[in-house]
Design brief:
The chain is α+β, with helices and mostly antiparallel strands. It has helices spanning 48-53, 62-72, 78-98, 104-118, 130-136, 141-154, 195-205, 223-240, 244-258, 261-280, 284-292, 296-299, 302-321, 325-333, 335-338, 345-362, 366-380, 384-403, 407-420, 425-438; strands at residues 15-18, 26-29, 122-123, 138-139, 158-163, 168-174, 177-181, 219-221.
């Protein structure tokens, strides 16, 4: 007996990681042998402080702003309190530094100089955390900009952020004039007016200063937007290290904080990375469950629907390869998973499993094989390949009895088969054959 084979191939899943800094374009990457699933704890609930700050009118309360900068850097519990106390001590020192200066521009520049004299030691493009800046003196554009925001806010100055394609800095309101502040350089106050800044900035950071005149290439962000850059960078750097589970939490926090299109897109990439990562390690259940259990706004995203479908496909095929047909079949009858498969994928896989189960059963009983295919038609529908398989198994079952001249049993088999497929030419021929022999 032959019937058309269903060709099922394993789908290769690709890891999609965010480029570092602020670029939202994803890229594909192979996974590294050095990472493991144990390195990927995951958090899907946003930090309470992100939820709390999201609806607030700016300027945000300074204590919450400071706490958020630390928590978004990855700190928790008493460690946040320790660093918050350290920052509050810096507020006192900054107040003393600017005392006697009434000009807000002078005060703003003194804050920058204070940072470079006492806090900022070594520029590191990857060092986006405020706590490490305070502890080690290493910094990048984001961590230094956030600290500048906090210190200026402590003396009553209004500060917000500016983003370019791959860089961030601050803008401070000083009287009626707003000034750019490139926090990575001690000469960064009103940088466009300083030759020293222009000579040194690119050499130190590798970036180019984008002046207010080039407004197309720069975008202003509020306090929340500046804080979110810590989270965006952490997601990017953790993803670069293949720590996709650890990257999920900051992505969740950023979306809870901003709720905008960019943070949503980055959140989807973070979920896709982690789910695909589980798939690459063969933990398809974990990858599927990650998406199934996510919030509706995430789980119904078209990208994640496709990833979930690919994972489930691979999960079923792995079970088949390991001869676990019953488990594979039960997976496809579970409504949570059935709805996860795109298009005709569920039907194709279901037919494939039923056909394999029937082929396995046929070694002992063609009757049992025919019943499996009959169940398949009830479940999947009267697909041509299933109907062909059914009549072939019934025919073979009939032949077993007919060749032994057990005509009563042969007639019973044919009658049952024709009750299900009354127009089957093959079974009608069998019926005529047995009738001739009875005559």
């Amino acid at each position: 007996m032959e019937y058309p084979a269903v060709k099922i191939q394993r789908i290769a899943l690709l890891i999609t990681a965010l480029l570092i800094y602020f670029n939202t374009q994803p890229f594909s990457s192979a996974y590294a042998d050095s990472a493991s699933l144990e390195d990927n704890p995951q958090r899907q609930e946003p930090l309470p402080i992100a939820v709390r700050l999201a609806p607030m009118i700016e300027p945000l309360p300074l204590d919450l702003l400071t706490g958020a900068a630390l928590e978004f850097s990855g700190l928790s519990g008493s460690t946040v309190d320790l660093f918050q106390a350290e920052i509050e001590e810096l507020f006192v020192q900054v107040a003393a530094v600017v005392a006697g200066s009434d000009d807000p521009a002078v005060r703003a520049e003194k804050v920058l100089l204070f940072m470079h004299e006492h806090l900022l030691k070594v520029y590191d493009v990857r060092q986006t955390r405020v706590d490490i800046l305070l502890e080690e003196g290493t910094f990048n554009c984001v961590s230094s900009a956030v600290l500048y925001l906090l210190l200026c806010r402590s003396i009553g100055l209004k500060v917000w952020g500016v983003r370019t394609a791959d860089h961030a800095f601050c803008r401070v309101q000083a009287g009626e004039t707003a000034y750019d502040v490139e926090t990575t350089s001690p000469a960064g106050f009103d940088p466009g007016s300083k030759k020293k800044f222009k000579d040194e900035f690119g050499k130190v950071t590798g970036f180019s200063y984008v002046s207010p005149a080039n407004y197309i290439d720069r975008r202003e962000v509020d306090e929340r937007g500046l804080l979110a850059l810590i989270l965006f960078n952490r997601v990017a750097f953790l993803s670069e290290e293949r720590e996709y589970g650890a990257a999920l939490g900051p992505a969740v926090d950023a979306h809870a904080l901003l709720g905008d299109e960019e943070s949503y897109d980055r959140l989807i990439v973070a979920f896709s990375n982690l789910a695909s990562w589980y798939g690459l390690y063969g933990d398809y259940r974990q990858g599927v469950e990650l998406i199934v259990q996510a919030a509706d706004a995430v789980s119904h995203n078209s990208t994640l629907v496709r990833v979930k479908s690919d994972l489930l496909h691979n999960w079923v095929i792995e079970l088949v390869e390991n001869k676990k047909l019953e488990t594979a079949a039960s997976l496809l009858t579970d409504k949570r998973y059935r709805d996860s498969l795109e298009g005709d994928e569920w039907k194709t896989l279901s037919i494939y499993i039923y056909q394999l189960q029937a082929r396995e059963a046929a070694a002992a009983s063609f009757g049992r094989a025919a019943q499996i295919i009959k169940d398949a038609v009830t479940s999947v529908g009267a697909e041509p390949e299933l109907l062909r398989s059914y009549e072939h198994y019934v025919h073979n079952h009939f032949v077993q009895f007919f060749n032994k001249q057990l005509f009563t049993e042969a007639i019973r088999v044919i009658d049952q088969g024709l009750a299900f497929m009354p127009r089957s030419s093959l079974l009608l021929k069998d019926q005529a054959l047995v009738a001739e022999n009875l005559d």
